[in-house]
Design goal:
With 178 residues, the chain is mostly helical. 79% of the residues lie in helices and 0% in strands. It has helices at residues 6-13, 17-38, 43-60, 70-87, 89-108, 110-116, 119-123, 128-139, 144-151, 155-177. It is globular, with a radius of gyration of 18 Å.
Length: 178
């Protein structure tokens, strides 16, 4: 077995809540970290989405096939939860308000904004797809292939998202340093 979680996943498919609890313990840091990066540092939102991810994973454990890694399958569910949340009107409005507030901060007091600039805010300039690809590849240490599996995207598309996202992040940091 190439995936260390595969045996636990098979037990969970047979209804073992203990096996699933072990899977949660083994993967909760991965899922929370991934979702925090997607949520631009909003820890409360990320934790809520992580909880929803594990609930959904338990409901869908019967559909897990060991064709890919368990963590890839789990990150795919997390990414779907993130996208569904993003589509909701309430989440969209909150994001728009945050972007407007950030833009005003940058215009009103560039020096103060530069002092507060951090990776989470810079990641906010990326598209959701670029942010997800960058978060998995750089933040979680996944290969491009693993990220492609988790996001349900072709390998070349993930590579493009990472390259373009990295360029945007570097440009944002360069602009902040100017």
């Amino acid at each position: 077995m190439s995936d260390p979680d595969e045996a636990l996943a098979k037990e969970a498919k047979r209804g073992s809540t203990r096996a699933f609890e072990s899977l949660v313990r083994r993967n909760q840091s991965l899922v929370r970290g991934f979702l925090r990066r997607l949520a631009a540092g909003d820890a409360a939102l990320a934790d809520d989405l992580a909880q929803e991810t594990f609930v959904m994973a338990w409901r869908r454990i019967g559909s897990f096939e060991a064709k890919g890694s368990f963590k890839g399958w789990l990150c795919r569910i997390a990414y779907t939860q993130f996208l569904q949340n993003r589509r909701s009107a309430k989440a969209s409005q909150r994001r728009e308000d945050e972007v407007m507030a950030m833009a005003e901060t940058f215009q009103d007091d560039r020096a103060a904004a530069e002092a507060r600039l951090d990776l989470d805010r810079v990641m906010g300039v990326l598209s959701p797809e670029q942010r997800a690809a960058m978060a998995l590849c750089y933040g979680e240490g996944m290969s491009h292939a693993e990220a492609a599996e988790a996001l349900g995207l072709p390998l070349g598309t993930v590579k493009s998202h990472v390259v373009r996202g990295r360029a945007k992040v570097l440009a944002e940091f360069a602009g902040a340093a100017a």
